[in-house]
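I'll show a sample.
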Amino acid sequence: MSIEPQSSSEFSNEALCELVKQSIPKHVAIIMDGNGRWAQSQGKPRVIGHKAGVKAVRRAVSTAREMGIGSLTLFAFSSENWRRPDKEVSLLMELFFTVLQRELKLLHKNGVRLNIIGDISRFSERLQKQIASAMAKTEDNTGLVLNVAANYGGRWDIMQAAQTLAEKVESGEMSSSQFTEEALSQHLCMQNQPEVDLMIRTGGDFRISNFVLWQAAYAELVFTDVLWPDFDEQAFKDAVAIFATRQRRFGLTGSQIETLQAEQ
């Protein structure tokens, strides 16, 4: 029996079958929350929590590689984080620069391709050069794609893509009828990567905080009370195990999905 998706579905039956049977997400996005609270709970400055969070990033990258996840996107610094105290923002920028220098060799050795997403124009010239250099060094790597969202916001991402297309329409490069969802998606960050399958938020809050809004349209959401510095290999694998138990319907009914599974 063939189950036809609704006319508004973005997926063909073949694509649905592939999505339904997968147990390991192709793309995981993580909102790394709880560094400051982790430090404060130990009577330490918030920056100590951010430094501890770097170790958790290293563990997450290692676990993602081990599990065969293709893309890992980490929310390092949102466009709203500029509202934090100036001293903390300055320390975060310096930490970002230091971590890039220190971790790049290991990432490159392990075949990881580093991709910084977001509006980096607000960063210092020194940091912008460091980002460009790091991305260039790893651009030919074929292993895990590590997307680090820095000065990133989901609304900004959609807006910058829409503005690019609007300029093309205005210049006559394309017609307004060609301004489609597919065209827009091709101008978003991570346009050549799979959409997010699993979004994890640590730290106990239940919101997505303007993170990869378009790319996570069909993502499964997992929220954990674990603070980011304590998010270890087992916590990551637990989140993926939860993902594997979810029935992903992509606009279909549960019975339609069961029929598709039975056909495999």
